[in-house]
């Protein structure tokens, strides 16, 4: 088993990564827990609910199951309240433990519910998508969406542990795998050139979910994210580099309508655009841009941005008249493995966006 | 001006107590705040909204007003969402500051909204009831009610400062003053015998809201609560003593229906019952019990518990068959100024409750 330790002011906890962890979940439940609430959705529960339940039942503690509807569209207050209803109807107390079994949506909602129930109960992250395993389950960001904005309501709240069973990826749709791999290569791009090169070499093994390769990729991703988060738990500085490719990515997601492209797909494409921008403003070599494009394509993400029109792009990136006159801040990579957070001239941004409108081969 | 400094792991901040603080609110807004959201209700806003707004406007920062309906019945998710709506519609960012102007209901909801908006923005407590000034605004407990329980959803979240203007108490209904004074004498009972004696001597001045007396009482209450909270921010130990009288008090509130007696009134009466229990189990002298009863009556709180019937009392105190066979934990005072958290024999509790059913002169 591989263990990554996360150290933040808000808490210190292990991430366990291995095949078969699902059958050992009970080991991560603190001895003094009075009860366990297993929070999941029908998709994940049908696949892994029974194994998780059996493993948790081994603790001998009372186990309550709370089922939420599946999908980003339900990451809202109404669904969050279903968790509170379940916890209260079953009279769970402050010493209960919440287990979030699912992708990032379940993890974000489960974590936020845990942070708020009786002003905070312990929770265990059991991420079952690649994106959740390498990104959303690590670092303590939790929350829900509001009609006026994604992830607007939430808390920084660390779990007692993260349990990653690499086997569960076998049932994940291919697009979800590609989307998760986009965040994996993001870590290489912003902070670890050697890891990026390793991903290039092992891209076929990664896409095939080869056990050894995917385990290492998850472990290294968690280590790198944990490092960044330990430096800046509450996103006042360094943590911003984790948003590499995300300004473009978010514009794609909302420009096409959420759900059209997966978040990771949009980020993949957005990283290519951010690399192009880095070439114009920060000295990234043309060869490096090409490596970013090639690996993004190889993991199965789109690399050609949708043609939204430059004006719409700028609007979606919230470059309004005012900031456009000034400058906009982006995460850029002067070279692969190094990130900076800098303002760029609107002109440079326009050149990248005009590119998006060109027919590409 | 009197200042009490609160030190907790979650933050360190001043409580300013003085006549006229309302006109100086701008001084507590951090320089780097991008905007201010003033959260209040129609009752309080009609009385003090303009003065608060003018003081905040002096910062030159954008000021947004968010009005919530008045009353404990609205301390719920729907109302909380009105705050999020207002913050998002006005595009307030992570560097905005929320100002909660009102009693404990506004403070609890404003604080919880601040803790969750974009995973945490800064907030300023401006408590306008005596109860909020001596209790709810200090210590960082925030939250809302759930249909299945009061204060079930929330966060520990400390403000950047607490601004207490003693003048605003002038418009407070007399019953609210009495209810606040109950929490004041509670601090004396659990932790400071000298302060309890001081309250006995100055009870008329306190009821009349004499400026010097009430300022000192607020200051001392804040100091004592700050001390307890600094030892135990998240209520894992010592903080429990703040619940002296509250097990009985909560039973009264829910037994009569919330709102029938004010919380502080129920706590006042509950402290008399807790003193009686302390006499039976923990050696509190009969003379001390009498002092508790006399002062509680003198501040204007009821001292005769409602006749709910012993069985209903036990049910309301959640003494079910199981715990009744065992023992129930209470905050008790072996003498005035000292609290312990101990289990008591069901028999002793029954004796106190049977008392409640007796006709009293
Ligand atoms: N907290 C953070 O730091 C952070 C970081 C990145 C993303 N996020 C959030 O994560 C969410 C996206 O997470 P996601 O990509 O995991 O989406 P998701 O949770 O919606 O999961 C995607 C789909 O896969 C299904 N699924 C999950 N595990 C499966 C498995 N093993 N086999 C088959 N199907 C499975 C889910 O039921 C769902 O239908 C977004 O809401 C985003 O805001 C949070
Ligand atoms: N967070 C904590 O640690 C803590 C501690 C104790 C109580 N509480 C909470 O506090 C709440 C009770 O607070 P409360 O007693 O202040 O009730 P409240 O906020 O409902 O205020 C009582 C009434 O007085 C009005 N009011 C406020 N200031 C006024 C003024 N200066 N003049 C005239 N009217 C005024 C209010 O609008 C309201 O109608 C409860 O919800 C309770 O759960 C929290
Ligand atoms: Zn992402
Ligand atoms: Zn109280």
- Counting H and I runs of at least 4 residues, what is the number of helices of chain A? 14
What distance lies between the first and last C-alpha atoms of chain A, to the nearest angstrom? 44 Å
Largest interface: A-B, 24 and 24 residues
- Helix/strand/pairing category of chain A: alpha/beta
Overall geometry of chain A comes to globular
Any idea what the CATH superfamily of the largest domain in chain A is called?
Dehydroquinate synthase-like - alpha domain
Listed once per kind, the bound small molecules are: nicotinamide-adenine-dinucleotide, zinc ion
Order of helices and strands of chain A: EEEHEHEHEHEEEHHHHHHHHHEEH
The multimeric state of the shown protein is: homodimer
Strand content of chain A: 15-25%
- Domain count of chain A: 2
Strand order of the largest sheet of chain A: 1-2-9-6-5-3-4
CATH domain class name of the largest domain in chain A: Mainly Alpha
In words, what does this structure look like?
The structure is a homodimer of 361-residue chains. The first copy, chain A, has 14 helices and eleven strands. Chain A is an alpha/beta fold and 361 residues long. Chain A folds into two domains: 170 residues, Rossmann fold (3-Layer(aba) Sandwich), CATH 3.40.50; 182 residues, Dehydroquinate synthase-like, alpha domain. In chain A, the strands form three sheets. Chain A has a seven-stranded mixed sheet with strand order 1-2-9-6-5-3-4, sandwiched between helices. In chain A, a hairpin with a 2-residue loop joins strand 10 and strand 11. In chain A, helix 2 packs across helix 3 and helix 5 crosses helix 8. About 1% of the residues of chain A have low confidence. At the A-B interface, helix 2, strand 7 and strand 8 of A face helix 2, strand 7 and strand 8 of B. The complex binds nicotinamide-adenine-dinucleotide (2 copies) and zinc ion (2 copies). One zinc ion binds next to helix 10 of chain A. Chains A, B: Belongs to the sugar phosphate cyclases superfamily. Dehydroquinate synthase family. Chains A, B: This is 3-dehydroquinate synthase. Chains A, B: Catalyzes the conversion of 3-deoxy-D-arabino-heptulosonate 7-phosphate (DAHP) to dehydroquinate (DHQ). Chains A, B: It holds the Pfam family DHQS_C.
């Amino acid at each position: 088993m591989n263990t990554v330790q996360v150290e933040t002011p808000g808490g210190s906890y292990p991430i366990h990564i291995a095949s078969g962890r699902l059958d050992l979940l009970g080991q991560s439940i603190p001895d003094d827990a009075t009860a366990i609430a297993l929070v999941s959705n029908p998709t994940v529960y049908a696949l892994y609910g029974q194994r998780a339940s059996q493993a948790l039942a081994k603790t001998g503690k009372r186990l309550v199951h709370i089922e939420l509807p599946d999908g980003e569209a339900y990451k809202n207050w109404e669904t969050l309240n279903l968790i509170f209803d379940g916890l209260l109807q079953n009279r769970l107390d402050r010493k209960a433990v919440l287990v979030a079994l699912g992708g990032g949506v379940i993890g974000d909602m489960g974590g936020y519910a845990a942070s708020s129930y009786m002003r905070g109960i312990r929770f265990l992250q059991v991420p079952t998508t690649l994106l959740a395993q390498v990104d959303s389950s690590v670092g303590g960001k939790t929350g829900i969406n509001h009609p006026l904005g994604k992830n607007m309501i939430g808390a920084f709240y660390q779990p007692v542990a993260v349990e990653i069973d690499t086997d569960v990826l076998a049932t994940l749709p291919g697009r979800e795998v590609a989307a998760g791999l986009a965040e994996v290569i993001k870590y290489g791009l912003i902070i670890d050139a050697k890891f990026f090169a390793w991903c290039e070499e092992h891209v076929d093994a990664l896409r095939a979910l080869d056990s050894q390769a995917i385990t290492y990729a998850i472990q290294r991703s968690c280590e790198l994210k944990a490092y960044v988060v330990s430096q800046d738990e509450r996103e006042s500085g360094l943590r911003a580099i984790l948003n590499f490719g995300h300004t473009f990515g978010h514009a794609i997601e909302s420009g096409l309508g959420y759900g059209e492209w997966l978040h990771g797909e949009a980020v993949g494409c957005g990283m290519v655009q951010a690399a192009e921008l880095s070439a114009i403003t920060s000295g990234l070599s043309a060869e490096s841009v090409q490596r970013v494009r090639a690996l993004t394509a190889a993991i199965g993400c789109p690399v050609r941005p949708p043609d939204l029109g430059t004006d719409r792009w700028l609007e979606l990136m919230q470059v309004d008249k005012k900031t456009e006159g000034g400058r906009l801040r982006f995460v850029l990579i002067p070279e692969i493995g190094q990130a900076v957070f800098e303002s760029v001239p609107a002109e440079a941004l326009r050149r990248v966006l005009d590119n998006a409108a060109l027919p590409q081969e």
